[in-house]
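User: I'm new to structure prediction. If I give you an amino acid sequence, what do you actually give back? Let's try with this one:
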Amino acid sequence: MKTNHSHLLFYPTLIIVSLIIGISFKNTLGHLNRVDVTGSAKRDFISDIIVWESTFRTKFLSLSDK
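Assistant: Good question. You get back a string of structure tokens that encode the predicted 3D arrangement of the chain. For your 66 residues, that looks like this:
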């Protein structure tokens, strides 16, 4: 009786390829919802077309800290 052990190679390979593709999509598409800005804003404004939601983080408080 012949046993077929091809699944022992196929399923781990499928899992590894799925992980690689998933991580690639996450890294590629994860940057679409982010805007990097260098500088400062001095003026408030009101938009009647869209509501912007944002969060702010700082890495360096001044250019000399860089």
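You can read the tokens as a compact description of the fold. Here is one thing that stands out. The chain has a mean pLDDT of 76.
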